[in-house]
Specification:
about 270 residues, mainly alpha, MetI-like fold, 12 helices, globular
Length: about 270
C-alpha cells in the first residue's frame, strides 16, 4: 500500500513539473527553429538570436528593463532594510500598524496599484516616462524587502547592538559590523525578490511609463499578437540568464561551505598532531 502511494506521489510530482517546465522547454526549443513555424521544427538556426540583437527596439527594452530593475533593487533594498531595522526597535503598536500598511501593496491587485500611481503622477502634472516607472517600481518593491528582512531581525539577539556600543562602536559601526552581517541572508533574499518583481512587472510599468519607454514585458505584449520568433529567442535568453544566476547563487555558497569545512578539518588535524 505504501509502495503504491509513493508511486502515485511521484507521478503527481512528475505531472506538476511537466506542467511548469514543458512550456519553457518548448519556447527554448523553437527559438532555434529555422522557420517561423511554432509547431514544426524545420532545422537548427541562430537567425532569430541574430535578429533579436540587431533589433533596436528589443535592445532598448532590455536596457530599460535591466536599468530600472537595478535602480529599483538598489534603492528599495536600502530603504526596506533601514525601515525594517527601525521597525524592530519601535513600539509594538507602531510596528504592527506599519506592517499592516506594508502588506497593502502586496495584497492589492496590480491594476489598482497601477491606476493609483498613474492618477498620482497625473495629479502632480508629472510627465510619465522612465523616471516615473522607476519610482513606481521602487514603491512596490520596498514592501517585499521589508517582509524578507523582518524575520531575520526577529531571530537576532537584541543585546548584540548594545554590546557593540558598550565595546566602543559608534551606532553606524554597530549597524554595519554587527546587525547587517547577521541579517545578510534576508537582505539578499529581499534584493532578489525586488529585482525579480521589477524585471517581470507589466501592469504597473504600462500605466506609469511614457512614449518611447518600454520594458521587456510591454514589448512582448505588443509583439506577441503577431508571429515573431525573436520573442522565443528573447525568452530563451532570459531563461538561460535566470538559470545561470540560480546556479551561481546556490552553488557558490556550497563551495564556500565545503572549503571552510576542509580548512576547519585541516586546522583540527594540525592541532591534534601538535
Amino acid at each position: 500500500m505504501e509502495h503504491k502511494t509513493k508511486i502515485h506521489e511521484r507521478i503527481y510530482a512528475a505531472l506538476i513539473l511537466a506542467f511548469f517546465y514543458l512550456p519553457i522547454i518548448y519556447v527554448v526549443f523553437f527559438s532555434f527553429n529555422q522557420s517561423k513555424s511554432l509547431t514544426k521544427f524545420t532545422g537548427f538556426s541562430l537567425q532569430w538570436y541574430e535578429k533579436m540583437f540587431a533589433d533596436r527596439m528589443i535592445m532598448s527594452a532590455i536596457g530599460y528593463t535591466v536599468l530600472c530593475a537595478v535602480i529599483a533593487t538598489f534603492v528599495s533594498t536600502i530603504v526596506g532594510t533601514v525601515t525594517a531595522i527601525g521597525l524592530s526597535k519601535s513600539k509594538r503598536v507602531l510596528r504592527e500598524a506599519v506592517n499592516q500598511v506594508n502588506n497593502l501593496p502586496m495584497l492589492n491587485p496590480d491594476i489598482v496599484t497601477a491606476i493609483g500611481f498613474m492618477l498620482f503622477f497625473t495629479s502632480l502634472k508629472i510627465k510619465t516616462g522612465f523616471v516615473t516607472m522607476v519610482l513606481a517600481h521602487i514603491a512596490f518593491c520596498i514592501p517585499y524587502v521589508i517582509l524578507s528582512v523582518m524575520p531575520k531581525l526577529r531571530t537576532l539577539d537584541p543585546n548584540l547592538a548594545e554590546a557593540a556600543l558598550d565595546l566602543g562602536c559608534t551606532p553606524m559601526q554597530a549597524l554595519w559590523k554587527v546587525i547587517i552581517p547577521q541579517i545578510k541572508p534576508g537582505i539578499v533574499s529581499g534584493a532578489l525578490v525586488a529585482f525579480t518583481m521589477s524585471f517581470d512587472d507589466f501592469v504597473i510599468s504600462l500605466f506609469t511609463t511614457g512614449p518611447g519607454v518600454s520594458n521587456i514585458s510591454i514589448y512582448v505584449y505588443g509583439a506577441v499578437k503577431r508571429v515573431n520568433p525573436t520573442i522565443n529567442a528573447l525568452s530563451a535568453i532570459l531563461v538561460f540568464v535566470i538559470t545561470a544566476v540560480l546556479i551561481i547563487v546556490n552553488v557558490v555558497p556550497m563551495i564556500r561551505e565545503r572549503r571552510n569545512a576542509k580548512n576547519v578539518n585541516a586546522a583540527e588535524l594540525e592541532t591534534g598532531v601538535n
